[in-house]
Design goal:
Strand content: 5-15%
Shape: globular
Structural class: alpha/beta
Radius of gyration: 27 Å
Strand order of the largest sheet: 7-6-8-9-11-10-15
Distance between the termini: 39 Å
Helix content: 25-40%
Number of helices: 26
Largest sheet: 7 strands, mixed
Length: 645
């Protein structure tokens, strides 16, 4: 790594090309590696932006795990893997670490196609124990990938442990009794403070029990003692367990429990990890206490411990965020929901560990008893809303599109089949930028609009979002959903308050000739930009905002088809969504029998890697220039200049 005046001095880290180079280093040298790794992580994220706090909390743990285990043969799975930046630096990717979350750069999460040291992608939480058990059983059943299978180690945050899937996996692993390791990275801090009984239980474990050194750890797990000592130790096992260990819940699931251990004490970490690596025969849970944002004062002092940051000044921690020209969609939603809540005390809001990201922190400040953070538990959150609705309340189930996917079975069975009026507020719709494919909101229109009785809306701008919040609040006849993107609105005039829309009715934006563009969602701004360019060419398209993917505005669509030679739909979603429903209507009505030219602009049938949202939409072929080209090619109008792909 070439020296640089504005980069930290990392002489020992500079000698580490792969985890194998950590073998044989003393604990003191590993401590120095950790200190230098922390500075390198801070330096890199100051240039790229990204998830800072989680990685800083696991620096010592990352070094210790790679020093003790034999990665990549031993499968190390990070959950959630936004804590993997230090891991990436140690595993041959330091030269690219300043491309994090950028176009053609390193992913902000672990990614199988990126490195053999990333055995499993985990950009959504609570999957690591299931995957680790899968690797373990594949090894025992003769699976032979390259590299060969060794141990499996899941590093799972305490927030991730709030999801049922983690306990489903532990229950299964405890039954199978195979050697595997779960490191519970307990920092009392996921994105928001973790909620629920499990969080309280973990708090009791480390307030009531001592931090363990090697001797305490060895005493606490009888199977680690030499055989002559085991019999006597067994007689004292229960006394020891309740005196020095608090892991009863995990032991009932079939895991041997060790901890809590200070996750920033390299001596303690190395002692315990070496011991369990040498002697474990069944499933082990090692409870490690860490501090999110550790070692960087601006992160330690931030409310979210530096969870996700823009680029920042390393000295001050001040983030370089561009001034906002318009309110964010999330803030507009939050204020509109508060406004509705002031008028209707039956309105409640539910989120799954994302109160700040969804804007519900603002609703919670105003109505603390009517706002619920259920933890990373979208399945429970959806059915909890179903129960609230059945009980006469008006729940807004407020989730990112990508996380709503995790509750789909409950959306179908507990909400849709029972026609319960749950309101789904779907944030981060469409392509979201630096988090890439794992966080894109590509599929919600397709998987909701095919459900009987569902109303599905998309806001074209921030004013429309206010009206859709009011529409959802007033809608008691079955489930209703509205989607909106990440980022700023387009700067339209805002209404004083929302007005409920007529269900299933779109709106005309402008009247033209030959071609009609029917937009669903926030591509409308790009459509209007394309329309200006087309008008300059002598082709003024008719433009309409569908507002609803279900029920469709049948009269509007058939009118557009009847009055134009071509109809183009556009949406920020995958195939199978709005455009597919329009095509079905046109086919059922026999419109295609009379020569209508129909095109549907949707996200391409690939997972688009991270970049800026504008660049991702360029890749998808859905920006203004692409819309202009689509109109011209559909009408058969020759274009001057370079051909487009």
């Amino acid at each position: 790594m070439p020296p640089s005046a504005d980069r930290p001095n990392t002489p020992l880290l500079d000698t580490i090309a792969s985890p194998a180079d950590l073998k044989g280093l003393s604990n003191r040298q590993l401590r120095q590696i950790a200190d230098e790794l922390r500075q390198e992580t801070i330096s890199a994220v100051s240039e790229t932006g990204g998830h800072l706090g989680a990685g800083l909390g696991v620096v010592e743990l990352t070094v210790a795990l790679h020093a003790v285990f034999d990665t990549p043969r031993d499968r190390l799975i990070w959950d959630v893997s936004h804590q993997s930046y230090p891991h990436k630096i140690l595993t041959g990717r330091r030269d690219r670490i300043r491309t994090l979350r950028m176009k053609d750069g390193l992913s902000g999460f672990t990614k199988r196609s990126e490195s053999a040291y990333d055995p499993f992608g985990a950009a959504h939480s609570s999957t690591s124990i299931s995957a680790a058990l899968g690797f373990t059983m594949a090894r025992d059943l003769g699976g032979a990938p390259d590299p060969a299978l060794g141990d499996a180690i899941a590093v799972i945050g305490d927030g991730s442990m709030s999801a049922g899937m983690a306990f489903e996996a532990m229950n299964n692993a405890g039954h199978l009794k195979k050697r595997m390791f779960v490191i519970l990275n307990d920092n009392e801090m996921s994105i928001a403070p973790p909620t629920g009984a499990l969080s309280s239980y973990l708090s009791r474990l480390y307030t009531e029990a001592p931090f363990h050194d090697l001797k305490a750890a060895a005493k606490s797990a009888v199977g680690f003692l030499p055989p002559p000592f085991q019999e006597g130790a067994k007689r004292a096992k229960h006394m020891l367990k309740h005196m020095a260990m608090g892991g009863t819940l995990f032991e009932e699931l079939g895991f041997s429990y060790l901890g809590p251990i200070d996750g920033h004490d390299m001596e303690a970490l190395m002692s315990v990890l070496r011991t369990v690596h040498a002697r474990a025969t069944g499933p082990m849970l090692i409870h490690v206490i860490t501090k999110k944002g550790k070692g960087y004062a601006p992160a330690e002092g931030a409310a979210d411990r530096g969870h996700a940051t823009a680029k920042f000044d390393m000295v001050t921690g001040k983030q370089a965020k561009a001034p906002s020209n318009a309110p964010s969609y999330t803030k507009v939603f939050a204020n509109a929901l508060i406004d509705e809540g002031l008028r209707d005390d039956k309105i409640v809001a539910v989120t799954a560990a994302m109160p700040d990201g969804t804007g519900l922190n603002l609703f919670a400040e105003r109505f603390p008893k009517r706002c619920f953070d259920v933890g990373i538990a979208e399945q429970h959150g959806v059915t909890f809303c179903a129960g609230l609705a059945a009980g006469g309340m008006k729940p807004f189930c407020t989730l990112y599109s990508t996380f709503l996917q995790r509750g789909y079975d409950q959306v179908v069975h507990d909400v849709a089949i029972q026609r319960l009026p749950v309101r789904f507020a779907i944030d981060r719709a469409g392509l979201v930028g630096a988090d890439g494919a794992t966080h894109a909101g590509s599929f919600d229109v397709a998987f909701l609009a095919n459900l009987p009785g569902f109303v599905v809306m998309a806001a074209a701008d921030e004013a429309e979002l206010v009206h859709m919040v009011a529409t959802a609040a007033a809608h008691d006849d079955g489930p209703i959903a509205f989607r909106f993107p990440r980022g700023e609105g387009v700067g339209v005039d805002m209404p004083e308050r929302g007005t409920p829309l007529e269900i299933g009715k779109g709106r005309m934006i402008q009247t033209g000739a030959r071609v009609a563009i029917l937009s669903f969602g926030t591509r409308l701004a790009e459509v209007m930009e394309a329309s200006e360019a087309l008008t300059a060419r002598g082709i003024t398209p008719t433009v309409a905002d569908a507002r609803f993917a279900k029920p469709l505005d049948r009269d509007l669509i058939l009118q557009l088809a009847r009055d134009h030679e071509a109809l183009i739909t556009i949406e920020e979603g995958a195939i199978g969504g709005f455009g597919s429903h329009v095509a079905q209507l046109l086919a059922d009505e026999g419109v295609f029998d009379h020569g209508l030219k129909f095109r549907s602009m949707v996200l391409p049938d690939v997972f688009i890697d991270q970049s800026s949202p504008a660049d991702m939409y360029a890749t998808a072929g859905m920006n203004a220039a692409d819309i202009e080209h689509k109109v011209l090619s559909t009408l058969g109008v020759a274009q001057m200049g370079a051909k487009r792909a």
